[in-house]
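User: Fold this, then the next.

Assistant: Folding the first:
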Amino acid sequence: MKKPREWISYESILELKVSRSEILRTFENRLNQSTRLISQLEDWLEGTLPNYKQALGKVTEILGKNVTKEGADETIQEKLSYSLDYLKENESHFWEQAEKNLKWADFEDMDTEDYIDPLSAKFEEWEESYKKIEKVHGIIWAQITMNPDKFKPKQK
């Protein structure tokens, strides 16, 4: 026996709310991680980084060439700055979407089979940016740990 359409819509919106709760929890955890990673990166990049050109080459592979200006003199900090701005922009779009209330009436006549939650899409956009920054963090960390004697942190 087939369930009435109202029951399917109500069940779908409950599943969507549970899914959104999981997305929000994951987002907040990753947001906290990103804050820590960014803080470490900023501290590290204020110092003298060993094998800077090698690190710049690897960071360029991840973040791209000339993201902030033309020419070959773009620094890791400039590339990272652009990526951090993009991460913040995606965070803002995520929170805008998260603030929208889900109303059962909006879903009554919708085909939920092919529905993609806009919050999930915004999270994926943010996460893609976050993963790039995470990779850059790994590169810089590797440069420092492979050559700890050459790394000179900025004097405070």
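Now the next one, as you asked:
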Amino acid sequence: MASIETLEKVMVQQLRSEYNSQAKHDFMFGVFAISLGIAAVLSTGWYLFFGPALMDLWSPMHLFLIQSINSIPAPETNDKLYEILLEQGYVSVVQIKELSEMAHQEVQDLLINQ
């Protein structure tokens, strides 16, 4: 049979290895968390510094995004749309108002039918 001293040595050795394992795990987790924080700060700084310059490189995409946002119907954009249509000679103000009323009526009909 094993003596009590041998069992104590084995127990101490197991506890020591568990402690070392947990310490390594905690250290690695801390390094990962700190690295992630540093990466987030650096990437934010990089974007704030270089982001506006990259918009010039991707101007077609930037222009597309601006046009997409401007195409969303809103009261302030409708006035600009009216001006553009009138300048290009597509429709008169009366026709624009009629088209707007017809579109509004169609939306109301769709909402009622649902």
